[in-house]
Design a protein that fits this description.
Layout: E1 2-8, E2 13-17, E3 22-27, E4 47-54, E5 59-66, E6 72-76, E7 84-89, E8 93-98, H1 107-119, E9 123-128, H2 136-151, E10 156-158, H3 167-174, E11 178-182, H4 189-196, E12 222-226, E13 230-234, H5 248-251, H6 256-259, H7 279-285, H8 291-301, H9 312-326
Parallel strand pairs: 3-5, 8-9, 8-11, 9-10, 11-13
Antiparallel strand pairs: 1-2, 1-4, 2-3, 4-5, 6-7, 12-13
Helix pairs in contact: 1-8
Bound molecules: guanosine-5'-triphosphate (GTP), magnesium ion (MG) and zinc ion (ZN).
Zinc ion is lined by residues 265, 270, 272, 275, 278-280.
Length: 327
């Protein structure tokens, strides 16, 4: 029998059969997909073959095969840095939820996410959530961020999940598709799913007042069928986004605005650092490429792991407050 994985909690997988029943399944022995070393062999979104096992009090299943994935989105596992974690597979669209302050989302985080999505060929839409909370400076920051990404071809939406702004437009984009919500903890992924489908009652939690971080309320990725012919995968908040190993020459190919220009660089193996006659550096000097994007590129190139800090801006502010108090 064939089914679709809706939830994975480590040892058990919830699989929806072709008839529409949900069956709790385990994996038969240990098998791995060819080519990827991941901490989770089966992910939400996988199409699997399974056999039923009936005991006196329950019907469970055993998964013995995974169908080839159309695509998947991975990140480096937090603890085992050489292992990957497959967040979800067979996705049509990813919606990356972004908040400006509570919690802060950095350019660097967004760029790392986008590079991975580009590498795995998954369309990403940026969703700026919590627009109802913006004061004037926050609004300016948000609009600038949106400008940077719209300029290079990413679709952006402005949403308030609590005041239902932009929610219908988002629903429209999800019809007939499998979508995934991603972003830091506390950006409002589960709240947004509830806004679209109030009957789901997904658990949500206010962000910590002190740290301005979310509290990791959602702990497992899970797919839901929505009443307007759409499927959504709600995922746990991610901290830093570890990029899966890539060849250095490959990275700029996943920055669409670099990709367009790189044939104009003098050297065809140009890494856009110190090389002469580099089209990307020239565009940067003309302000046609955003510095934030170039900085993210350099960090990825140098293999820096992302350190997700609360906000360096807040840190700076704290220091200046302290010095002020000392006076
Ligand atoms: N004012 C306002 N608050 C929001 C909005 N969206 C979400 N929130 C609040 O943000 C907090 C976090 O929301 P969640 O939906 O739990 O966030 P999440 O992204 O699912 O977090 P994790 O499950 O931890 O990854 C909750 O208190 C929500 O009520 C919004 O558009 N406006
Ligand atoms: Mg959640
Ligand atoms: Zn170059």
């Amino acid at each position: 029998m064939t089914g679709l994985v809706y939830k994975s909690t480590g040892s058990w997988y919830t699989v929806k059969s072709e008839k529409g029943d949900f069956i709790e399944c385990r994996m038969k022995g240990k098998f791995r997909m060819k080519g990827i070393k991941s901490t989770n062999p089966i992910a939400v979104g996988d199409i699997v073959d399974y056999e039923l096992e009936e005991t006196s009090d329950a019907v469970t299943g055993t998964i013995f095969n995974i169908h080839e994935r159309k695509n998947y989105i991975v990140r480096k596992s937090v603890n085992l840095s050489h292992q990957m974690h497959i967040i979800a597979s067979n996705i049509d669209r990813v919606f990356l939820l972004i908040t400006i302050n509570n919690p802060p989302t950095t350019f660097n985080f967004i760029d790392r996410f986008l590079v991975t999505a580009e590498a795995y060929n998954i369309e990403t839409i940026l969703v700026f959530n919590k627009i109802d909370t913006f004061d004037e400076p926050t609004l300016e920051d948000q609009l600038y961020m949106q400008y940077v990404y719209q300029q290079i071809g990413y679709k952006c939406l402005r949403v308030s999940s609590t005041e239902m702004k932009g929610v219908d437009e988002l629903k429209e984009m999800m019809i007939g598709k499998v979508s995934m919500f991603s972003g830091h903890s506390g950006v409002g992924k589960s709240t947004l799913v509830n806004a679209m489908e109030p009957s789901l009652h997904l658990k949500t939690k206010t962000i910590s007042e002190a740290s301005k971080q979310g509290q990791h309320t959602t702990t497992f990725a899970e797919m839901y069928d929505l009443s307007f012919n759409a499927k959504i995968i709600d995922t746990p908040g991610i901290k830093g986004f570890g990029i899966v190993d890539m060849e250095k020459e490959e990275i700029s190919g996943y920055f669409p605005e670099f990709f367009k220009l790189k044939d104009q660089c003098k050297f065809n193996n140009c890494l856009h650092k110190e090389e002469p006659h580099c089209a990307i550096k020239a565009a940067l000097e003309r302000d046609e490429i955003a510095w934030s994007r170039y900085n993210s590129y350099l960090k990825i190139l140098e293999g820096d792991e992302e350190n997700y800090r609360t906000d360096s801006y807040d840190e700076d502010r704290k220091i200046s407050d302290e010095t002020r108090n000392q006076k």
